[in-house]
């Protein structure tokens, strides 16, 4: 009935020859439509199914052609909208289904309140077909693996990144058979090359889908990489040399007593760095069973705000004292 009504209305609106006869025809059609729509009808309304919260750990066999047909009785005015707009019914796997024998089961009787909510009180639900929907599934394994970036960064003169390159999210979930996911311990992003960088980094990168990953489900197809880029400068401190593991019965004289340490730091943190933040050590045990007359200094401590640091001297001469 509603398909015929819609067709006639469409033809009337498309006609460009609206004359007196046409005007009477439109009026007649309106009276006819009002008469028809004032009557009570029994109709079948087909609901498209929308699935929500399908479990990741299960491969659920979902047939996209499945629909729910609801038989209703109502006045034409209340049914008219369903001739123009296709209704949808959401099936939530967290609340609307039950689990039995490796099958998710949707039962119409248990969800009749949800279907009734789709209609106004003036619509009576007579039947729901099918009364049961079944969704068989296979169990899958879930594994969380880190994301490895493939980023090459070239900085503009005097600039560097003050923190490590961060990845959001830093790991993803892969879902599939236990045998397949056992072989994968990380995923890698597609390559990105940045040149002459002097501003903060904020880029979206796609996950590189290898042949193995293409057979699995990956929770995220892309990640975001971020880095704080700042203007850097170099500073130098003379840091005292500390001799460790010197036997109690041994006395030495060594030179130099301090070693220049050059370091790179952002301009924002330059004034925060102190000489006491660094420590240079020489381990006396390193010369055991050797005839060396010098020690190798090592930088064993530097502040977190410093990007990098290096010693400007690599030998400490010493002599044994009697």
UniProtKB/TrEMBL annotation:
Keywords: Membrane, Transmembrane, Transmembrane helix. It comes from the Bacteria. It holds the Pfam family YbbR. The chain crosses the membrane at residues 18-35. Gene3D superfamilies: 2.170.120.30, YbbR-like domain. This is YbbR-like domain-containing protein.
